[in-house]
Amino acid sequence: MAEAPSLFPVAEFEGRVGRLQTEMAERGIDALLLTTPADFFYVTGFLTRFWESPARPWFVVVPIAGTPIAVIPSIGAELMSRTWLRQVRTWDAPHPEDDGVSLLIDTLCGLVPETGRLGVPMGLETHLRMPLADFTRMAEGIVPREIVDGTATVQRVREIKSEAEIEKIRATCGVAGRAFARVPELAAQGRPLSEVFRAFQCAILEEGADWVSYVAGAAGADGYTDVISPAGPAPLEAGDVLMLDTGAVCDGYYCDFDRNYAVGPASAAVRTVQAALWEVTEEALAILKPGMLACDVHWILSDGLARRGVQPGAGRLGHGLGVSLTEWPSFTPLDRSELREGMVLTLEPGAWVAPGRMLVHEENLVLRAGGAELLSPRAPEQMPELPT
Amino acid sequence: MAEAPSLFPVAEFEGRVGRLQTEMAERGIDALLLTTPADFFYVTGFLTRFWESPARPWFVVVPIAGTPIAVIPSIGAELMSRTWLRQVRTWDAPHPEDDGVSLLIDTLCGLVPETGRLGVPMGLETHLRMPLADFTRMAEGIVPREIVDGTATVQRVREIKSEAEIEKIRATCGVAGRAFARVPELAAQGRPLSEVFRAFQCAILEEGADWVSYVAGAAGADGYTDVISPAGPAPLEAGDVLMLDTGAVCDGYYCDFDRNYAVGPASAAVRTVQAALWEVTEEALAILKPGMLACDVHWILSDGLARRGVQPGAGRLGHGLGVSLTEWPSFTPLDRSELREGMVLTLEPGAWVAPGRMLVHEENLVLRAGGAELLSPRAPEQMPELPT
C-alpha cells in the first residue's frame, strides 16, 4: 500500500495544540470546534482533497487539556488512523436525519462542563463548514453550555508558523519558482491564454507540486483589469503583459505569488510601473519588522508608489499565507493587526499603467526578528520577455 | 484582453432563475440568499478559482421576481460585469468592521417586505460561506423578516440539468476518459504513486481540462482500503490494483469517475470482484428509471453484488454531480429522494476482495425519461493491465 508518510513529527502537532490551549485558557474557552479544511489539517495533519465534495461535514474538537477528538464520516477513518489522533468517532455520512450531529453533541457534552464555553471561529475570514440547521441543533443540544467566538484563539496561533511549516512553504515557493522560470518556453505571441494556463499547471506539477489549487492571471496590452478570471481562448499578442498567479500545494502548504511577462518588448509605460513595483517591494522587504501594523505595510507600498508618480491599485496589497491560499492579516488602510515574528506574508503591490491597465507584483516572505526573509525566488528587476 | 467567452446564453440563466422563482413561490420564499461557489456560479455564471481564498464572502440574492442582485467584493466587479447580471453592488473587502454586511442588509431590506421570508440553504450537503457572526448580524438587521430553509428550493432546481449543462458534463467526462486511456503509458511497476498522480493530472490538463479540482486514488495488493488519500512515494508493485478517481473541470462542470488498473495480471479474486462490479453496473444502467428512489439504487447495486457472492462496500454507492464534485441525492439505504428526469448521477459500487482490500467502480450518467444514458466512456469489462 503506497501510503503518504506523516508530514510532521507528533511534537509539531502537540506544540500547535498546546499553543491553542494556552490561548483558550486566556480567553476562557473550554473547547474549540473546528470545521474547515485549513483548521482541520492544522490540528490533525489529515490531508485530503476530499473536501472538494460538499456532501459531508468533518469536526475536530480541541479540549482545554489533552489531545483533540475527531468526529468524522466513516469514509475518513482509515486515513485518520494514520494521523497522531487517537480519539476518532465516526458515523456513516451522509445521513439524512442525523449527519453526525448527535455524535458531536455527545462528544461536546462529555468534554465541556455545563458552565463551560465552546469556541467556534465566526469572525472575519472564517466560515462554518457544516449545515447551518445542524449548527443550530447542536447549539440547542449542548445548552446550557455557551458558544463564543473562537476566531482570535485560532488566528493568533495559526499565524505564527513553526520552522517546519516555513520549510514547507519555502519548498512550495521553490516549485512555483521553477515553473515560472519555464514560462518563456511555454508562452509566446499567438498562443491562446487557455493553453498557457494548462501548460503552466503541468509545469507546476512536473516541478513537484502535489496539486494546483489556484491559477489565475490575465493578458492585455500594457496590463490587465482583472486578476481573478479563468483564461479565455484569445491568443497572446505583441505588446501584451501576461500575468500568472499561483497557489501550488506541496504537503498541504501553499505558495501565492505571481509573475509578469512582456510579449515582445515592454512599452515605456509598463517599464516605469514595473520599476516602481519592484523598487517599493525592495523597500518594504528592507524595512518590515515585527511590531509594525498591517496598515503600515499598506502605507509603505502605496506611498512608495505615489512618490514615484505611480497610482497604487485598489484593494489589499498583501496578506498572510500558509495552510490556505490566503490568510489574515490584510495589508489595507483599515487592518491594525500587529505583525509578529514567524508570520508568513505576501507583499502584493499593484499599480495602474493606464485606466483599466494594471500590473500586480507579488512575493512571499517570513517575518523574522530582524526583518523579512524572502521565501519566493525574487522576481527579476526587468520584466522577462516572451517570444514574438 | 484574452477574455473567457460566456459559457451559456442569457436564456439559460433566465430559465434557472425562473425555475427557482417558481419553487420560491410554492414555498412562500420572497428572496434567496446564496453564498457557496456552486450556487453562485449556477445563478450568475461567475466562474473563478478565487473561491480558494477564504478571505472574502460573496453574495447573490434571487428575488421572487426580476433578476438576481450580486453583492460582492470590488475585486470581482470586472469579472461580474461580463456576466448577465446587471445589478451588482460592491464593497472593498476584506473590511474588518463591516465586510459587506450593511450592504447586504440594505439590499435585502429593499427586496423583501417586512412580512416576508428570506430563504437560506441550511440543510444536508449545504453550508453558509460567510462568517457566522456576520450572518447573525444580518439576521438581526433584517428583522422582522423571517429566515427559512432554502435547501429544497435550490436542490429541486439544480438537480435537473438542462441539455446545455448535460453537454458540459459530457465534455468533461470525455476529457477524463481520454486521460484514463493514457494511464497504461503513465503508470507501471516501480513508478511511485505520487509520480503517477502528477502525470495523470498533467494528462487531464493536456486532454483539455481547465483545471483538476480532485484527484484521489490508491494502490495495493488485490485492492485498497481507502479512497480519499493523497499519494505517497511508494512504488507500484506487481499484483497491485491501482485506482485513480478524478474530478476534472471544464467550463465549471465536473466529472467524477474512477478507473482501476492491474499491475501485471490480476489475481482470480480481483477478477471475480471486478466482474461483479461491472455486471451490477450494467444491470443498474439497464433498469434505472425516473420515479425510483435513491435507496432503490443502493439496493439494486448491493443486492446484485450479494447475489454474486461479493460483499458490498460501506457508504454511499453513488450520488449527484454537476457544478460541484458531488451533489445530492446519495445512494444509501436511507435516502428516499426521488430520481427525476434530467438528473446527472454517478453509480459507484464498491466491494471487498478481502478484509482491507476494496475495489470501487464508477460511471457518470444522465437519467432520461426512458432510462440511463452514459456520460462517461464505459469502463472495460476486464481491468486493463499495466506493464511490469
Plain-language structure description:
In chain A, 34% of the residues lie in helices and 24% in strands. Chain A has 2 domains: 10-158, Creatine Amidinohydrolase, Chain A, domain 1, CATH 3.40.350; 163-386, Creatine Amidinohydrolase (Alpha-Beta Complex), CATH 3.90.230. Chain A has 388 residues and is α+β, with helices and mostly antiparallel strands. The relative contact order of chain A is 0.11. Chain A contains 11 helices and 19 strands. In chain A, a hairpin with a 5-residue loop joins β2 and β3 (69-73). The mean pLDDT of chain A is 97. The interface between A and B is large, with 91 and 92 residues.
Layout: helices, strands, pairs:
2 copies of one chain form a homodimer.
Chain A: H1 10-27, E1 31-34, H2 37-44, E2 59-63, E3 69-73, H3 77-80, E4 87-91, H4 101-111, E5 117-120, H5 132-141, E6 146-149, H6 151-158, H7 163-181, H8 183-186, H9 193-206, E7 211-221, E8 240-250, E9 253-254, E10 257-263, H10 268-287, H11 294-307, E11 311-312, E12 318-320, E13 327-330, E14 344-347, E15 350-354, E16 357-360, E17 363-368, E18 371-374, E19 385-386
Parallel strand pairs in A: 1-5, 3-4, 5-6, 10-19
Antiparallel strand pairs in A: 1-2, 2-3, 7-8, 8-9, 8-10, 11-15, 12-13, 12-14, 14-17, 15-16, 17-18
Q: Which terms summarize this structure?
A:
five-stranded mixed β-sheet; 19 strands; 2 domains; homodimer; globular; Creatine Amidinohydrolase; Creatine Amidinohydrolase, Chain A, domain 1; six-stranded mixed β-sheet; alpha+beta; 388 residues
